[in-house]
Amino acid sequence: MQLAVLGATGPTGQQILRQALAAGHHVTVLVRDPARLPQREDARLTVVTGEATSAADIEKAARGSQALISALGPGKDFKSTLATRTVGPVLEALAATGVRRLVWLSALGAGATAQRQSRLQAGASKLLMGKLMADKGSADDRIARSGLDWTVALPVMLGNGPLSGADGYKIMPLDGATGRIGGKINRADVADFMLSAATTEQWNRQRVILTR
């Protein structure tokens, strides 16, 4: 399968890229600095240099793909507006290329999903990342209003442990979840879910909570 990936040099994006190549997929990535890609010599990888805030650059990366996976993240910038600055260009580029499948990395606590976080994590998010989570929620809402075949991943707090596999973590549609959810999930497991969602029709047009 031909996939496009945004955020491939980040910690979750690297997990997605490694797993996609290991599964035999052909991948095009959009990055600002190709030197940060350990996989840049892989024959199944195409690298496009550009910005995720540019619809034209995203279009170059997405054209010919069957799905686009966005693992863009703010790093340590808790006031980042990256989500709302990139969602418009992403939607514009997908409309131009005809790519309909979009799998988007967000976070539990984004927008109205804060009511599903554990009280401890919700409090910490509000105190430290209020602007960031509001920005993510706005982007998620825009995706949900699009006509695309989208899936928004809402992981709880992220960790760097090994892949535990589909039976090692929990997948819960936001609309069907009850109560407050906390805990931690490995980035490798988030990548496993996002890659599975991108290559199947499962979880189409759903926001999905991921936890251990």
Order of helices and strands: EHEEHEHEHEEEEHE
CATH evolutionary superfamily:
NAD(P)-binding Rossmann-like Domain
Using only CA atoms, what is the Rg?
16 Å
Structural class: alpha/beta
Distance between the termini: 28 Å
With strands numbered from the N-terminus, the spatial order across the biggest sheet is 3-2-1-4-5-6-10-8
Main beta sheet, described? 8 strands, mixed
| Poorly predicted runs of 5 or more residues | none
**DSSP helix count?**
5
Mean pLDDT: 96
Strand content: 15-25%
**What's the helical proportion of residues?**
25-40%
Secondary structure tally: strands:
10
How many separate structural domains? 1
Shape: globular
Instruction: Output the CATH class name.
Output: Alpha Beta
Give me the secondary-structure topology.
Layout: E1 2-6, H1 11-22, E2 26-31, E3 45-49, H2 55-62, E4 67-70, H3 82-97, E5 101-105, H4 119-145, E6 149-155, E7 157-159, E8 170-173, E9 184-186, H5 187-198, E10 206-211
Parallel strand pairs: 1-2, 1-4, 2-3, 4-5, 5-6, 6-10, 7-9
Antiparallel strand pairs: 8-10
Helix pairs in contact: 1-5, 2-3, 3-4
Salient structural properties:
single chain, 212 residues, alpha/beta, Rossmann fold, 8-stranded mixed beta sheet, two-stranded parallel ribbon, 5 helices, 23% strand
Description:
The chain is an alpha/beta fold. The chain has a single domain (2-211), classed as Rossmann fold (3-Layer(aba) Sandwich), CATH 3.40.50.720. It is built from 5 helices and 10 strands, in the order E-H-E-E-H-E-H-E-H-E-E-E-E-H-E. The protein has helices at residues 11-22, 55-62, 82-97, 119-145, 187-198, and strands at 2-6, 26-31, 45-49, 67-70, 101-105, 149-155, 157-159, 170-173, 184-186, 206-211. The radius of gyration is 16 Å and the shape is globular.
